Amino acid sequence: MMFENVQYANPDLFWLLLLLPLAVLWYFFKRKEQTASLKMSSTKGFAQTGFLPKLKPILFLLRLLALATIIVAMARPQTKDVSTRTKTTEGIDIVMAIDVSSSMLARDLKPNRLSALKKVAADFIKKRPNDRIGLVAYAGEAYTKTPITSDKSIVLSAMREITYGQLNDGTAIGMGLATSVNRLKESKAVSKIIIILTDGVNNSGFIEPQTAADLAVEYDIKTYTIGLGTNGNALSPISYNADGSYRYGMRKVEIDEELLKGIAETTGGKYFRATNNEKLEEIYDEINKLEKTEIEEFKYTRFEEKFRPWVLLAGALLLLEWLLRNTLFRSFI
User: Fold this and answer.
1) Separation of alpha carbons 238 and 240, rounded Å
2) Tally of domains in the chain
3) Which of 63, 77, 151, 251 is deepest in the core (most CB within 10 A)?
């Protein structure tokens, strides 16, 4: 379309269109003066010339339309194409350390703690398109599920695969933190972050949590800690049924909050407590806001001039007017 998504570089020139009504008035007032006339007592002896002389004003109309298109061309119609390119100026490397002990199957979060965490953590990953993210799973021991990578599809796939039973049961917070530090210690990123989540008390592993926290400080790694579980008692696995499934019962929720607060304080991070699904989502949203990646945006604007069709149209109208004036209407001018 000729007018679709079009802007004008010189829109003030449209004021010239006001000359067109003046030209029309001038034409009608001066028409008789410009046309030769002969007074006769009777025209009976002359043959009728038909309706062609009555169409003579079409010449003026063509010239008027040509003038209007020239004014539009002078206003310089153009389309604008804007493209942007973003460049990450301060990247963040993040390792998410996830507790996969049996207590993470407790049902105080819906459907259970581990499933609720995986859903919220996946949403967090999707909101960090410019960062590299890795996963560490830990229970009685720890291992790297995914090294830090910018490929979010790999991280999300690995997140879905995390389940209970892949490690010896227990809660080795120090091992989980130390393994996370090991993933980040060679990183050249401006900012390095660990998010470690647990629902229990450190009771396994051969690395003390405070030792792992000191390692994090040495490598300038900030650690956010999250305690997961309701206050009081929660429906948790307490034994096995004959078919191998879990038998659930009420169990007191025990989280070493002092330890988690100490790790966060030592490394310059922050401690959070998630007692339900909504609170867990809020915590990850807050961390997402606290750790912002600096992005530089470059904007490119390309203008494409659209005045040429108007110039060609004006030329075509003037040519048509000239041809009609010197052919069809030649005898009446």
Assistant:
1) 7
2) 2
3) 77
Residue 211's pLDDT is 95
Residue 221 forms part of a structural domain: yes
Do 105 and 224 lie in one domain? The reply is yes
Asked whether residue 201 falls in the same domain as residue 137, the answer is: yes
pTM attached to this predicted model: 0.65
Task: Decide if 68 contacts 18 (C-beta within 8 A).
Answer: no
| CA neighbours closer than 13 Å in the CB half-sphere of residue 186 | 5
In which region does residue 37 sit, left (phi positive, over 0), alpha (psi from -120 to 50) or beta (all else)?
beta
**Whole domain around residue 161: which residue ranges?**
86-296
> Which residues of the chain are modeled with pLDDT < 70?
1-4, 31-54, 84, 86-90, 293-298, 331-333
DSSP H or E segment with residue 314: helix 308-326
β-pairing verdict for 92-99 and 294-305:
unpaired
What are the backbone angles phi and psi of residue 164, rounded to the nearest 5°?
Answer: -75, 150
